[in-house]
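To whoever is covering the structure queue this week,

Two jobs came back overnight. Logging them here so there's a record in the thread.

Job A:
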Amino acid sequence: MIDKVYATPEAALDGLLFDGMTIMCGGFGLAGNPESLIPEIRKSGVSGLTIISNNAGADGFGLWMLLESRQIGKMISSYVGENKLFEQQYLSGELELELNPQGTLAERIRAGGAGIPAFYTRTGVGTLVAEGKPVDVFDGDEYVRETWLRADLAIVKAWRADLAGNLMFRKTARNFNPNMATAARVTVAEIEEIVPEGALNADCIHTPGIYVDRIVLSTINEKRIEKRTTRPRGSD
């Protein structure tokens, strides 16, 4: 069996990074971010990156680190709110942005992993999203043609993995991670717990190990709350 386990996040990315590459990065808000791998990409100094991710982290955390170091040249995203640095770089022309409806972004990634180069959706018809894209009519309704997304590297975060690289994600941290793991030339997964081969229930595996090239134990597991909303306790 191929040894997929690497000693450190730095080692897990060794030989994979280069200027101008495209990286898929799992996560939704601050849930399921590969928070141990992102700092290593920053340390590497690679630049001109195209990042495919739902959003770009939050102030001081996640992909924000690569924005702050000016290593990202283009974001392919769904959500740009609540990240002032993202907003500033886009409005100043430093950062190119390809904005996608969230469902379309997810389907473009899934299509990349499934080998489907294009598909049609009604989402975005008649809006800026459809500009420059083919529009066809099916059963009397217009649909815009969207294309797959693929990457040189996918970095994802999973809850548990076995030595073969089979992955389980926990609750909302599942988000974009499973689809991204299938849609890149190389997939590196950081894991909270690595278990022996055969220890995972086959029915509970979200991403088969055939899609995963390297795994490494997470060194950062902060599980931050992006926005805390509370209410006063009742008098009783």
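Job B:
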Amino acid sequence: MSSKIFPDPKAALDGLLFDGMTVMSGGFGLSGNPESLIPQIRDSGVTGLTVVSNNAGAEGFGLWMLLQSRQITRMIASYVGDNKLFEEQFLSGELELELSPQGTLAERIRAGGAGIPGFYTRTGVGTTVAEGKPTEVFEGEEYVRETWLRADLAIIKAWRADPAGNLMFRKTARNFNPVMATAAKITVVEVEEIVPAGTFDPDCIHTPGIYVDRVVLSTINEKRIEKLTTRPKQATDGELQA
């Protein structure tokens, strides 16, 4: 069996990128973003991308790079947030946006990985989210039909991988990454650490290697904080007495 381990992010994406493709990109806010793979997609020059991601990064970080380079023409996301470039391109008509409720987005991706073309949910009934979509009544309640999401390529970030591509995620970086790994034709994973075969307890594997095609060691691990709130240090009783 050929090795799943690639020497660098550029090599890990070699031969996979083409104009008009659909890419799933993991992450939630700035946690668990494929920081090393996104710049390589930018540098490749591919255009007309449809990108499925919870959000589109923040200024100077993550998918924001692909918005800045005008390589994304369509986003399927659940959160626009404070990304001014995302907002500007959508409002100007430059970027097509399909806004999906967060839980629905996660389930659409999971359904894509599980081979389930459609499912029904109460979320979005009676709102613009349901416009143009079939509805059906179950036990007296109206539900809207949502369809699966699948992609040509998933780029995700994990904490650790072994040579077979088995993955472990760390805390909130787990977010959308595991489901996206199941819903694409090819899954490329960047990891903070590659460990020897046999390191993982099978019960501790979050994503089995069967879903992973290529693994590369991360070259960027910034782990930015999206919003940092602080307050002045409160004086202690001792300090007040002094």
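Note for Job B: The CA atoms of residues 107 and 154 lie 16 Å apart.

Please reply-all if you pick these up so we don't duplicate work.
Q.
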